[in-house]
Description:
Elements: H1 4-22, E1 30-35, E2 45-52, E3 56-64, H2 68-77, H3 87-109, E4 117-118, E5 122-125, E6 139-147, E7 151-161
Antiparallel strand pairs: 1-6, 2-3, 2-4, 2-5, 3-7, 6-7
Helix pairs in contact: 1-3
Amino acid sequence: xxxxxxxxxxxxxxxxxxxxxxxxxxxxxxxxxxxxxxxxxxxxxxxxxxxxxxxxxxxxxxxxxxxxxxxxxxxxxxxxxxxxxxxxxxxxxxxxxxxxxxxxxxxxxxxxxxxxxxxxxxxxxxxxxxxxxxxxxxxxxxxxxxxxxxxxxxxxxxxxxxxxxxxxxxxxxxxxxxxxxxxx
Length: 184
């Protein structure tokens, strides 16, 4: 069983991770809104990653369609132009966005769970979202993510628990780090 405060903690961490991963600059405005169900999610593809411990497995899915606004935004994240990028380049960038998202989520969860592992990103078709309920998850939450009021992504969190999960998060504190590498 996942407590209500743990669900709120997962949601808070996912929201922060999405904002960190989908910003191309510090000026970007990333709005994350929880959704009741997945019916709004129409993007063609998704990148899936997993954060796991011996207590739970959290599958994170970021849905996307490589339309013109999304290509422009991903090119900006890559510090490139849409014309200079191939289809494979876009998939590499979305995979890296997924890695930043998953790494941020992993870092935040590691304050509460000492033993965590992450998967590598895999790109799948959108229909996979329709089968999340088959995983016997204790918590599924979908999100609409709008960047600069012009690009829309969707994200889903699916938490399968193997024991009772309860933790509390101070939601008044947010970190400013967006996954940059520091060199010493």
